[in-house]
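seq:
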Amino acid sequence: MTRRELVKQFIKYMIGGGVYFWSGYAVFAVAYSGLHWGWFPSKVVADIIGWTLGFFVQRYWAFHHPSLAGKTIHISGKYVLVNATNFLIDYLIVWGLVVAGVSPYIGLFVAAIFFTAWNYVWYKFWVFKPHHKSGNS
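struct:
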C-alpha cells in the first residue's frame, strides 16, 4: 500500500470510528439522560448499536478488499473477539472514572482516545487483513 492509500484508509477508518462513537454517544445520551437508565446499561445498548454500525463501515468501506469476499462470518468472529476485549477495557476505563467522580460522558471520550490507535492496529493487521494467495506478496 502506498503512503497515500494508507492515509486514505486511515481517514475512512476515522470516519467509521466516528459513526460508531457518535451513534453510540447519542444512544447513550438518550438512555442515560433521557430515560434515566444507569450508565452501564446505557453504555451496553449504545455499544451494541455503535459496534454494529461501525462494523459495516470498517468492513465494507475502510478495510474493503476483494480477498475478503465471502469471509464475513470469519471476519465477524474476529471483530466480536476484539470488541469483547475492548468491552472489558472500555468499561474499566469508564467505571474507574465514574468511581473517581468523572462524568461517564467524559469517560466515553477518554476511552475513545485510547481505542483510536488500538483498534486501527487490530483491524488493519488482524480483523480485516487481506488474504493473499501463497507466492503473492
